[in-house]
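hey so i finally got around to running the thing on that chain from the lab meeting. sorry it took forever, my laptop kept dying and i had to restart like 3 times. anyway pasting the input first so we r on the same page abt which one it is
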Amino acid sequence: MLGPGRGSSVFPVPCRQAVYSQTYYEANQINKKILGRGLSQQTWAIIPKIREVDSFIVNNDFIKNKLVESHPEVCFYALSGRPMQFSKKCRKGANERITVLRKLYQNTDEIIKFALNNYRRKELALDDILDALCLAVSGLQGLKKEFSVIPQKPEKDLKGLDMKIVFSCS
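ok and heres what got predicted. didnt touch it at all, straight out
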């Protein structure tokens, strides 16, 4: 869907057993055994957040399959009708994404300015702001129209959760 330029932005999710491992080595070995592939350091770095969300969903029946997964690059693609051309970390990539957001949400510049003025860069970078705003805009679009899902017929994991990414088109 995102092509060779942005496709690697959506990296494979680790298996649940790896998410609850205590060390990178252990998680990497478990993921290789269960899914046939290791974990990147980038994935390992966000495992505490994955674990936190997974634990919340699994332990709260009222939220199961209501709190859903999405991805900013998939949403930018859907909102603009094409994959983003540049990396979100470079100026051209940031401007490309800001242009998409401005067309759909009139307060884009104010939100970016507020976040940049109120958080240190080590706490919150511009690409994080753009990702969060894109997910929010996609969510608003989905509530107004409808959400799309990939894959169209999601499988369920062993805890009964749909394995899918949701997004909305503009």
